[in-house]
Amino acid sequence: MLSAMGNLVVHFEIHASEPQRLIDFYSGLFGWTFTPFGDAYWVIETGEGSVQMDKPGFGINGGLVPRQGPAPEPGAPVNGCNFVIGTDDVDALFGKGLELGATEALPLEDMPGVGRFGYLLDPDGNVFGLISPVMSDGTNAMEQSP
């Protein structure tokens, strides 16, 4: 018998050496809300339209947990998964991330048929991406022929 759930990603977790520092960073960058759950966990609500326990949505929510060990060293390979955030203005959000303490992991670039994207490292060294269908010339990658 097949499961009604199709092996979709439904939750993410961010590991933090200093939880409050990352709560402040992601709240400031994306407007996410963090709610304590137990002694050492915070539930992340990513915004209106995200998947909820009682309704479908277009994005997922997550959690923030204390890191069990040292933060990634600068230049170290990714050890785990990362997430990519869709946005209407990737250039502005990328710049805001830098202002809030992120560092550039991969500069913004256009990829025909995909969009404009780049990757940042949060203040604790976790990598995450930003992507928009709008290219640097204002065209929409989703409306271009392959």
Provide a short characterization of the protein structure.
The chain is an alpha/beta fold and 146 residues long. Helices cover 15% and strands 32% of the residues. The chain contains 2 helices and 8 strands; from the N terminus they run E-H-E-E-E-E-H-E-E-E.
Structure description:
Strand 6 (103-111) and strand 7 form a beta hairpin. The protein has two domains: 8-69, 2,3-Dihydroxybiphenyl 1,2-Dioxygenase, domain 1, CATH 3.10.180.10; 78-146, 2,3-Dihydroxybiphenyl 1,2-Dioxygenase, domain 1, CATH 3.10.180. The chain contains two helices and eight strands. The N and C termini lie far apart (38 Å). It has 146 residues and is an alpha/beta fold. The radius of gyration is 16 Å and the shape is globular. A four-stranded mixed β-sheet has the order 1-4-3-2, with helices on one face. The protein has a four-stranded mixed β-sheet with strand order 5-8-7-6, with helices on one face.
The CATH superfamily name of the largest domain is: 2,3-Dihydroxybiphenyl 1,2-Dioxygenase, domain 1
Shape: globular
Kindly name the structural category. Answer: alpha/beta
Q: How are the strands ordered across the major sheet?
A: 1-4-3-2
Low-confidence stretches: none
Q: Report how far apart the termini are.
A: 38 Å
Give me the secondary-structure topology.
Layout (H helix, E strand, L loop, with lengths): L10 E6 L2 H12 L2 E4 L5 E4 L15 E6 L16 E4 L3 H10 L3 E9 L3 E7 L5 E6 L14
Parallel strand pairs: 1-4, 5-8
Antiparallel strand pairs: 2-3, 3-4, 6-7, 7-8
